[in-house]
Write a structure and sequence with these properties.
Blueprint (H helix, E strand, L loop, with lengths): L35 H8 L3 H15 L4 E11 L28 H13 L4 E6 L8 H16 L3 E5 L5 H10 L3 E3 L18 H13 L3 E3 L2 E3 L5 H12 L7 E6 L16 H14 L4 E4 L8 H9 L4 E3 L12 H10 L3 E2 L6 H24 L1
Parallel strand pairs: 1-2, 1-9, 1-10, 2-3, 3-4, 4-5, 6-7, 7-8, 8-9
Bound molecules: iron/sulfur cluster.
Iron/sulfur cluster binds next to loops.
Enzyme class: transferase
InterPro entries: Aldolase_TIM, BATS_dom, Biotin_synth/BioAB, Biotin_synthase, Elp3/MiaA/NifB-like_rSAM, rSAM, rSAM_sf
Keywords: 2Fe-2S, 4Fe-4S, Biotin biosynthesis, Iron, Iron-sulfur, Metal-binding, S-adenosyl-L-methionine, Transferase
Length: 372
C-alpha cells in the first residue's frame, strides 16, 4: 500500500520575489480565490526563497516571537469504528492502543490546571469516535468539561468527530473556542486513506463549526504516501474556504504498528518546511500548528519550521496517542531562540469570535434582566 513517500523532486522555479511586498491599505489581508497552480508555484520555489517570503508574510501578520502552547488530552481512547489508515484508535486494526470509556470530569480539570500552570493557553480534548450519535449523556459531560476549562481562562478546543449544526451550537454556548476536524489530505488522495467518512462529510462538519461562530482548526498529515500535488491540494482546499481556518495543524505521520501505514517512511523535514511556508503565504492570519511528530525533530529543524511560519505547538506529556515534547524542554528551547508563549485569545480571528460570544452573553443577560 502507501509505504513510501514519492521520490519525485519538486520542480524548482525562481518565480518568487525574495521579499514580501509591503501591504497597501487596499490589499486584502486574506484571499479566498487561490488557483491550485498559483499555490503549486509557491510550493515549488527554491526552499530558502520560500522560507524567506513566508517569514516576511508571517512578520506582517503575527508577532514572530510568539508561539501558542497547547496541551492535548485524550478523553476517550480507542475503539473507533472509522478506518483512518494512520490511526491507532481504529477498532479495525490490531494496535497497542486499548479502548476506554469517556473519562470523568475531574481528571480533565486536573490536567487542564496543570497545563495552565505550565504555560499552555489552549487545552484540547479528543474523543475517538465517528460522531456524537447516541451519546447524549457523554455529550453533556463534555459540555461541562468545556464550561469548566473555559472558566479557567483558557482557550478550549475539542475534537469529537462529526458534528451537527445543533451540536456545534451547544458547544459554542458552553464556551468552546475552537473545534478540530482535519481534512488530512487532498480530496483526490483522501479515499486512499479513509473510506468510512467522505471528504464532503468533513467539510459539512467544518461548515457547522464555522456557522456556530466557533474557530475552525483543520489541517493535515504529511507522510501518508501523498504527493506534492496532494499537499498543495490540501492547502488549496482550506485557503479557499469562505473564512480561512483560524488554525492549520501540520502533522508528520508517526507510523503505528498494526495500522496499514506502519511501514511508511518518515516525511522529510524539507517537505514539512515547504508545506508550512506555503500554508503561511496562502493563509497569512492563520495559526500554523506544528503537531504530531514534532518531538522527533532536532531543535534546529523546529526553529526552521518557526521561521517558515509555524506559530503553535502541542506541549505537555502526550499527544492523543503519540509522544509529545515536555513543557520544560519546550520552554528551554524557546528561550534559546528568543521565543515566548502567546496569551489566550491573542490571535485576532479567535479574539473576534470570542468577543462576539461575550457580547451575546451580555445581550442575553440584559434581555433576561429586562423581562424580570
Ligand atoms: S482518526 Fe479519529 S475518526 Fe479516524 S480512526 Fe482515529 S479516532 Fe477514529
Amino acid at each position: 500500500m502507501f509505504r513510501s513517500l514519492p521520490t519525485r523532486s519538486v520542480q524548482l522555479t525562481r518565480s518568487l520575489t525574495t521579499h514580501a511586498a509591503p501591504l497597501k491599505s487596499t490589499t486584502p489581508v486574506t484571499r479566498h480565490n487561490w488557483k491550485k497552480d498559483e499555490i503549486q508555484g509557491i510550493y515549488n520555489a527554491p526552499l530558502l526563497d520560500l522560507v524567506f517570503r513566508a517569514a516576511s508574510v508571517h512578520r506582517q501578520h503575527h508577532d514572530p516571537s510568539k508561539i501558542q502552547l497547547c496541551t492535548l488530552m485524550n478523553i476517550k481512547t480507542g475503539g473507533c469504528t472509522e478506518d483512518c489508515s494512520y490511526c491507532s484508535q481504529s477498532s479495525r486494526y490490531s494496535t497497542p492502543t486499548k479502548a476506554s470509556r469517556l473519562i470523568d470530569i475531574e481528571p480533565v480539570l486536573e490536567a487542564a490546571r496543570k497545563a495552565k500552570a505550565n504555560g499552555s493557553t489552549r487545552f484540547c480534548m479528543g474523543a475517538a469516535w465517528r460522531d456524537l450519535a447516541g451519546r447524549k449523556r457523554g455529550f453533556e459531560r463534555i459540555l461541562d468539561m468545556v464550561r469548566e476549562v473555559r472558566g479557567m481562562g483558557m482557550e478550549v478546543c475539542t475534537t469529537l468527530g462529526m458534528l451537527s449544526p445543533e451540536q456545534a451550537r451547544q458547544l459554542k454556548e458552553a464556551g468552546l473556542t475552537a473545534y478540530n476536524h482535519n481534512l488530512d489530505t487532498s480530496r483526490e488522495f483522501y479515499p486512499q486513506v479513509i473510506t468510512t467518512r467522505s471528504y464532503d462529510e468533513r467539510l459539512d462538519t467544518i461548515s457547522a463549526v464555522r456557522e456556530a461562530g466557533i474557530s475552525v482548526c483543520s489541517g493535515g498529515i504529511l507522510g501518508l504516501g501523498e504527493s506534492d500535488s496532494d499537499r498543495v491540494g490540501l492547502i488549496h482546499e482550506v485557503a479557499n474556504m469562505p473564512e480561512h481556518p483560524e488554525s492549520f495543524p501540520v502533522n508528520a505521520l508517526v507510523p503505528i504498528p498494526g495500522t496499514p501505514l506502519e511501514g511508511n517512511d518518515p516525511v522529510s523535514v524539507h517537505i514539512l518546511i515547504r508545506t508550512i511556508a506555503t500554508a503561511r503565504i496562502a493563509m497569512p492570519t492563520t495559526i500554523i500548528r506544528l503537531a504530531a511528530g514534532r518531538n522527533t525533530l532536532p531543535e534546529t529543524d523546529q526553529a526552521m519550521c518557526f521561521m517558515a511560519g509555524a506559530n503553535a505547538v502541542f506541549t505537555g506529556e502526550q499527544m492523543l496517542t503519540t509522544p509529545c515534547s515536555p513543557w520544560d524542554e519546550d520552554k528551554a528551547m524557546m528561550g534559546r531562540w528568543g521565543l515566548d508563549g502567546m496569551r489566550s485569545f491573542e490571535q485576532v480571528g479567535v479574539a473576534k469570535k470570542e468577543a462576539a460570544r461575550l457580547e451575546q452573553v451580555v445581550t442575553s443577560r440584559e434581555a433576561s434582566a429586562a423581562t424580570l
